[in-house]
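WARN no homologs supplied; continuing
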Amino acid sequence: MAPSTALKIARAAVARGWRPFPVPHRSKAPTQPWGVKAASAPTDRMLEMWFPEGVELNVGIATKPSGLFVLDEDTPGELDRLCAARGTILPPTYTVHTAKGRQLYYAVTYGPENVHVLANRQDVDGLDVDVRGAGNGFNQLFPLGHKYFGFMDLYGRSNIETPNVLVQASPHDKVRLQLWYHYFFLENANDTPYNVNMTAFSPGSAPASRDLGHEIDLTTQYLITPRMDILFGYSHFFAGQYYKLTPGLPYRGDADFFYTQYSLNF
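OK structure emitted
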């Protein structure tokens, strides 16, 4: 989002008692490792430093420090189906409408009796509804629809950092080339990485390293007509020290991903 917009949203979040922090444009990870675990009530001067003019950033909200429990609907109507299945009605609350659905923000008080109930979850009851709550969770205000954690979908949106570099070129009117590099590492070395479905990867194995690895995504798109194209993709994951040193993991090697995509726009 535009720099000035991000700062205004962050200030509005602080006014509500929430704990905002910067998230890079086209990313789901905080700009700093302290983003989720150590977020504190920022001053206005801190917000100006975190969201400087001329830098395009998104706004993340640390859910547990903000006293928030967020229901994130990724397909319209899924929250209504969840409520119907459980025989309940959600009370009115602060709601953000996204490209794929909506996010409902509820104020809660976290304690030993509910911290596990309010923990992060994905695809609740098999529906396209995620929960952002306790643990290492944060929720991104007005998130982009696309997942920017690499095309191989190796990791979910928890306890993860991913600096990345994107290079694009068009050597011909009908040809578009793209190279996307990601480096993945754990935000918290005392917690496991999470799969894309938000289940813990080998939760019984204490991480021996935060270094998860590197992913390179290569795509070539050919425009057959203005409404038709074909895309060829290849991705490779280079396993990091986490996989090489952590005992008891079910898989330790690199990985490859090939695919072809045909698109026709009506």
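The chain has five helices and 13 strands.
OK
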